[in-house]
Amino acid sequence: MSDALVAYVNNRFVPLEEATVHIEDRGFQFADGVYEVVACFGGTFLDLAPHLDRLQRSLDAVAIAMPCPRPELEALLQQAYARNPFQDAMVYIQVTRGRAARAHLLHEEIAPTLVITVRQLPQPSDAKLAQGAVGITLRDIRWKRCDIKSIALLASVMGKLEAKRAGADEAFWTDAHGHLLEGCATNILAVIDGVLVTHPLDHQVLGGITRHMALQIAAELGIAVEARPWRLDEPGLSECMLTSTTNAVLPVCRLDGRPIGDGRPGAVTLRLRARMVERLRQLSERGRHG
Ligand code: PDD
Q1: Which of 17, 93, 104, 126 is the most buried (most CB within 10 A)?
Q2: Could you identify the atom of ligand 1 that is nearest to the CA of residue 35?
Q3: Of the residues 128, 144, 149, 160, which is catalytic?
Q4: What structural domains and CATH numbers belong to the chain?
Q5: 158 with 141: CB under 8 angstroms?
Q6: CA distances from 146 to 85, 184, 186, 207 (A)
Q7: pTM passes above 0.90
């Protein structure tokens, strides 16, 4: 297997080094596009249908057409995975409105740009798993449609920079009332009086596919679940965790310099992570052998 990476752009697969879009692509000039990140384990995409449903919702919200019929997109994703040298991969899908002379409002019909890239799915280190992630909170400075998976991620980049400066892994946005919303690229959940709590789905958060999976697993394990606004200073709060395609479930053990609970990964978090990681391992194994 060659280690050269291959990307899909301008309707064809090309070596990543040669994969370019025009400077008048509206993604470049206006961040006029949306994206998805899907994990692929041994050739099986995790929750592909909900990811593509979310892509469709994002596209509909900004009036960009799906670049090709869904079965064709699924075939392209399979090909993109197969052309790259990773057993467990994260597959990035970006759709922009396309290429046109720069004007906010377009008067002509243009074809959307579809880009697909594939990278190794990152794994949290053993140390990170043992100690848990470290976070900071920041007042949310993003726009009012965070349910759309927009490629306009400048606020998230700024949040990540702030987190890094503070020696943290992630920055979590709070609303005017101090409610925890989500991270720059993650959702956040807490265990409060034994109940798994996370912000309800509205325009302030992305409906994370991993968040949904975590809530489902919790229900299967008989853990009570509640979607409601919550704050870090609630008396019964004993655990925090983040979820995302690239992290599965990861304990968050310090926020704003203070320990969460006893400062170690919590029991509920570890149960959810174990169950989720087991599912992912099974997918990966099935791909390897089947
Ligand atoms: N980020 N919230 C935000 C703002 C995100 O950007 C993401 C995903 C999530 C988690 O969603 P999911 O569980 O569907 O991955 C929540 C991706 C991974 C990224 O931007 O790389």
Answers
A1: 93
A2: 20
A3: 149
A4: 6-120 (3.30.470.10), 126-281 (3.20.10.10)
A5: yes
A6: 33, 11, 12, 9
A7: yes
